[in-house]
Amino acid sequence: MMIVTTTGYIVACIGPFMSDFNNNDAAIMKDILLRNTDHILSWPKEHDILVVDRGCRDSIGVMKALGLEAAMPTFLDGRRQFSAEEANESRCITKIRWVVEA
Length: 102
Fold this sequence. Notes:
The protein is of the alpha+beta class. The chain has one domain. Helices cover 34% and strands 13% of the residues.
């Protein structure tokens, strides 16, 4: 798992991890956070936001329980369109993720 800043700077490369049905991105992220691998919980400062992709959806609860704020592109959940606020937030997250993945 790669830990990358919003400018594309690679902070850490943690792994390798065996990936299967039970050991997906969310499970790996939970494991990293709960074991505090590489003292990762000391890295974020107050008001920092962790930008994650939808693969980490199931680890958002652990992040919140640890006092971390996470942002992820939203889902429509059966609706036809997002509210203006949801759409703008999702666009911002997508732009940040594009810089990281490019």
